[in-house]
Amino acid sequence: MSVFVKICGLRNSEHVKAAIDAGADAVGFVFAESVRRVTPAEAATISVNVPSHIKRVAVMLHPTNDEWQEVLRGFAPDVLQTDAKDFASLDVPDSIERWPVFREGKGQPEARNTYVYEGKKSGQGETVDWSRAATIACDGHMILAGGLAAVNVAAAIATVRPYGVDVSSAVETAPGQKDVRMINEFVSAAKAAEKNL
Question: pTM to 2 decimals?
Fold first, then answer.
């Protein structure tokens, strides 16, 4: 089993390249209120050299349809990631993958497709209950997020057995400041954990 790895909250081309070179499968760009927030034009510019097999993910939180359309026009992502209930009010073309976010303790994922499972707040390094996550990871393609780092991602993968893992704050030296070495260490640790599955 191959573990899917997403590096989220990228803000410059150096770190996008670092994620790709390290072996990440997806790169995430935040359009919600955050120290990691970028504009659609910035995301488009820094992701221009992302190979087609790597997913470019627009990460939002309770956007209006107008806000989403602005991201769609200016960035044209491969994937939209936002809270599960947000999709009801958004016009998402069939060409864009939908990754609903389910938060711990707030409803069970019904989707058989890819979804993100994390704590109550995104980007806070908040670890979910892995044993609880493990009970629902068999439903669809769970991307586990929240509190994952190079030092614990192997244990998380062994316990939860998710489809993928997602990291943001744990590959930063300060909020919003990604680090090439930390990105490499995280991806290496996650990919190495595949051997134990």
Answer: 0.94
Question: What is the residue type of 87?
Answer: F
Q: Which two tokens stand for residue 193?
A: 């954990």
Is residue 128 classed exposed, middle or buried when 0-12, 13-18 and 19+ CB atoms within 10 A define those classes?
A: buried
CA distance 102 to 44: 27
Tokens 């670092």 belong to which residue?
A: 18
Phi-psi region of 97 (alpha: psi -120 to 50; beta: other; left: phi over 0): beta
Nearest to 147 by CA among 176, 117, 174, 173: 117
> What mean pLDDT comes out for the span 33-62?
97
Q: Walk me through the domains of the chain, giving residue ranges and CATH numbers.
A: 4-196 (3.20.20.70)
In the chain, alpha helices (H)? 13-22, 40-46, 65-75, 130-136, 153-160, 180-193
State the pLDDT confidence band at 126, using cuts at 50, 70 and 90: confident
Q: Which among 18, 21, 41 has a CA at the least distance from the CA of 29?
A: 41
Contact yes or no for 100/113 (Cβ under 8 A)? no
DSSP states of 6-60 as a string? Answer: EE----SHHHHHHHHHHT-SEEEEE-SSSTTB--HHHHHHHTTT--TTSEEEEE-
Beta bridge partners of 172: 178
Gyration radius from the chain CA atoms: 15
